[in-house]
Amino acid sequence: LRPKRTLRLVLWTGEEQGGIGAEQYYQLHKENISNFDIVMESDEGTFKPSGLAFTGNAKARDIVREIMALLLPINITEVYDAADGTDINFWMRDGVPGESTLQIKFLPYTVACQGEILQALAA
């Protein structure tokens, strides 16, 4: 794929504190909303991807399906309705198409694993 326009990757923190990073970015840039073609969130941690959840019009969905067809060799082709995400909901409420990643399942990892990892490293 070769984009026709500049792609902007924006990373922030503060979701667990109420989405303050995403909200601040939205407040600073919402006047340029017509320049945004899609907002994406990947906040699922370690996982095996299965596809994307997507919110947008039919034309945009067709474009997403075309892109996902390129991932057929690695079996990541599903496009589901209703993307959601603390960091992208501001934009989607204003009509910008949104995408979030979907996973088959989380790898087995819990907060308890952190202690086990630290014990193994200390041994």
From TrEMBL:
Residues 2-99 form the Peptidase M28 domain. Keywords: Carboxypeptidase, Endoplasmic reticulum, Glycoprotein, Golgi apparatus, Hydrolase, Lysosome, Metal-binding, Metalloprotease, Protease, Secreted, Signal, Zinc, Zymogen. One of its GO terms (biological process) is proteolysis. Its main location: endoplasmic reticulum. It comes from the Eukaryota. GO terms for cellular component: endoplasmic reticulum; extracellular space; Golgi apparatus; lysosome. GO terms for molecular function: carboxypeptidase activity; metal ion binding; metallodipeptidase activity. It is found in: Endoplasmic reticulum; Golgi apparatus; Lysosome; Secreted. Homodimer. The monomeric form is inactive while the homodimer is active. This is Carboxypeptidase Q. Belongs to the peptidase M28 family.
